[in-house]
Amino acid sequence: MKNTLQNDLVLRAARGENIERYPVWLMRQAGRILPEYRAVRSSLSGFKELVETPRFAAEVTVQPVDILGVDAAIIFSDILVVPEAMGLEYQMLESKGPWFEKTIKTEEDLKYAEVDFDVEDRLGYVLEAIKLTNQELNGRVPLIGFAGAPWTIFCYMIEGHGSKTFSESRKMLYTNPVLAHNLMDRITKVTIKYLQAQIKAGAHMVQVFDSWAGILGTEQYATFSMPYLKQIADAIQEVPLTIFSKGAMSSLEDIANLDCNTIGLDWNMDIPEFRKVIGDKRTIQGNLDPCALYSTHDEVKKLTNKLLDSFTSKRHIVNLGHGVYPDVDPEKVKTFIQTVKDYAIKY
Amino acid sequence: MKNTLQNDLVLRAARGENIERYPVWLMRQAGRILPEYRAVRSSLSGFKELVETPRFAAEVTVQPVDILGVDAAIIFSDILVVPEAMGLEYQMLESKGPWFEKTIKTEEDLKYAEVDFDVEDRLGYVLEAIKLTNQELNGRVPLIGFAGAPWTIFCYMIEGHGSKTFSESRKMLYTNPVLAHNLMDRITKVTIKYLQAQIKAGAHMVQVFDSWAGILGTEQYATFSMPYLKQIADAIQEVPLTIFSKGAMSSLEDIANLDCNTIGLDWNMDIPEFRKVIGDKRTIQGNLDPCALYSTHDEVKKLTNKLLDSFTSKRHIVNLGHGVYPDVDPEKVKTFIQTVKDYAIKY
User: Fold this and answer.
1) CA proximity to A314, closest of A16, A15, A71, A8
2) Which of A225, A250, A253, A294 to probe by mutation at the B interface, max B CB count within 10 Å?
3) Contact state of B170 with A270 under an 8 Å Cβ cutoff
C-alpha cells in the first residue's frame, strides 16, 4: 500500500525517516468547520447516520484533503463505536453530547461489555468507509484510523456521558479495582481487534486518543491506563502508531517508552521541554493552540512559524494541540497549513 | 485576632512556623456532603438565597468545624459574587451550574464590569457572614476568605457559563488582547478590594482559586494570569495568602515566586516533585484525590498516611486536591481528618 501513495510524508515522519518538509493535518479536520461537511450532515437524520453510512463517512473524510490540502486523511467516525459494539448503545444528543442509556456499575453489567464478537461484522461500517475512502483518495495521502484509549472508553462506559471530573469512573478505581481492570482488559482486547481490522481494511497509520488522561494522577495513570496502552502498542506493528494522551504531562516519559512511533502533545505541553525528555526516539505530533486560529491571517502565520521554530528535530508531524474548534474560519486553517508547507526544515 | 484563636495551626503552617501536627481542612467542606447542610439548604429558595443570607451562610460555614473537626472554616460563598457585583447577574441552575444572562464580548460591554463601586455595600452580605461566623466560632479555628483568580472570573464573564474548553475566553486572548487585559485589570482591582474587605471583616487567611488555570498554555498563563495574581499577592500582606491554580503544572515555579504563603496542588500534581522545585520557601496545600474518600475506611487511612509519608517538610496544610465530591460519606471524611491528626510529623 505504501508504495502506491503519492504523499507519504506523514508516514515517513512517524518512522523518523527523511522528510523534505513537515507534514500537517488537523484533529477533527473531517467535519465541523467545512460548509461542505455541514451540507452532507444536514441531509441526514443525525451524527450517527453519518458515522454509520460508509459512503457519507468516506465523503466527509476526503473533503479536507480536497479543500484544505492536508497531508493525511483521518476516517470520520467516533471513539464511541467501540463501547456500542461491546453492548452499550449510545445516542449523540445535539446540545449535550454522547449519552448511554445503560452503564457498567457491577460485575453483572459486564454482559454489556462483550469481547468475543466479530469486529468485522459489528464495526463493518467503519471498515467499509475506510475502503471507500482509499478508493476515493486514490493514493493521494495516507488514511489514519483511530480508537479511544481503554481508560477514556472506560470513562464513558461507567459514566454514560461526558463529565468535568469523571468521578464515578475514578471512584471505581478505588472501590472495585478488580472490576475496573476486568473492564479495561475487555476494552483493550476489542480495541486491538478493531485497530487491526482498520489496518487490514486499509488504514496506513492509527492513532489512540486518551482524551481523559489528564484527570488521573501519575500513579493511577500508570496503574490503570499504561498497561493497556502497552498491550495496544505491542500488538500494532504493521503501521505507525500515535498515542495522544491529553493532559498526561507527568506520564509523557512513560508513554515515550512504549513501542509507538509518535506522541501527540496538547497545546499546554511545551515541545522543547518534552523533546529533552524523549530525545529523538519518537516523533512528536502537535500542538498549536486551536484558539490561535481565531487570530488574523498574519498572526496565524506568525504563531505557526513560532511553533515550527521551536522544533529541534525533524521528527515532527504538525497538528493542533486539540481538535479544531467548530467556529474557526476554514481560510485560517488554510493559512496554518500553507505556513507549514512553506517552512524549510533546519535539520 | 490571632491571639484569640485556640487553634491557629493552619496559620502557623502557612507562615512556615513550628507546628505540632499537620493542619487539615477540605475545599467545599461547607455544604454538599453534610445532611445538616442539606437541611438548611432545602428550607430556602435556592443556592443564592443561602449565599446571600448571612445567618444561613454562617451556619453552614460552622457546621464542618462542629461535625468534622477541621482545623479551619472557609466562608460559604461563591466566586461568582464578584462578577455579579461588577454588573453581571448570575443564576445557579440546578442541573446546569452557573448561568449569566449577559456576557462581555466588546469594549461596550465593559459597562457590566464596573470597578468603582463600594464593595462593602454590594458584597456586604459576605462580610456580614464572615462577622457572624467568627462570633459563632468564638476563636475555635481560623476563618478562611476567598475569591476567584482574575483569569477564572474572566472565563465566566466572557462565556456566561461553564465549558470544557472555554474557547470563547481563549479566543479573546488572540483576537482582542487589549480588551482581555482591560477586563482582567478591572477584575483584579475589585478582587483586591474584596479580599481586603474580607480581611477587615475578620478573615484570618485568604485563598485565590484559579480553577481554569489548566486550560492555558504556560506562555499564555504567564501573560494573562500571572501579572494579575502578582498584583493580588503584592496587595495582600495582612494575612497569609494561598494560591490554588488547578492544572497549572508548568507554572508552579512562577507561582511559588509570588509573594504568597501557600500553593495549592491538585491531585494530579506530585508533591515530592514540586517540593524539589520550590524548596522550603512556601507551604504546600493538598492534595489527596477526592475519589480516595470513596474507598473503605482502612484504605482511606492507608492512602492518607501514604500522602503524609511523601512530605519532606513541615510546611504542609493537608487538604484534598479538589473540592470534596457531593456523594462522599462524611464518615470517610472524618477518617481522613483523624488520620492526619494522629500522624506524627517527622521534621
Assistant:
1) A16
2) A294
3) no
> Residue ranges of the domains in chain A?
26-281
Residue A185: all three cell numbers together: 482488559
Classified as helix, coil or strand, A182 is helix
In this predicted complex, what is the ipTM?
Answer: 0.91
Q: Which pLDDT band holds residue A32 (cuts at 50, 70, 90)?
A: confident
Query: How confident is the model over B290-312, as pLDDT tens digits?
Result: 999 999 999 999 999 999 999 99
For the segment B20-72, what is each residue's pLDDT rounded down to a tens digit?
Answer: 999 999 999 998 899 999 999 999 999 999 999 999 999 999 999 999 999 99
Look up B15 and say whether it is catalytic.
no
Tally A–B CB contacts below 8 A.
72
Query: Would you report the helix, strand and coil content of chain A in percent, each value rounded to 5?
Result: 50, 10, 35
Flag if B165 and A299 touch (Cβ within 8 Å).
no
pLDDT digits (tens, 9 = 90+) for A241-298: 999 999 998 899 999 999 999 999 999 999 999 999 989 999 999 999 999 999 999 9
Q: Which fold has domain B2-342?
A: TIM Barrel (3.20.20)
Note the CATH number of domain A26-281. 3.20.20.210
**Which residue in the list B22, B37, B90, B156 is annotated as catalytic?**
B156
Q: Which residues of B touch A217 (CB under 8 A)?
A: 267-268, 270, 289, 321
Q: Which residues of B touch A249 (CB under 8 A)?
A: 249-250
C-alpha distances in Å from residue B7, one per residue of B11, B64, B73, B141, B335: 9, 15, 11, 5, 20
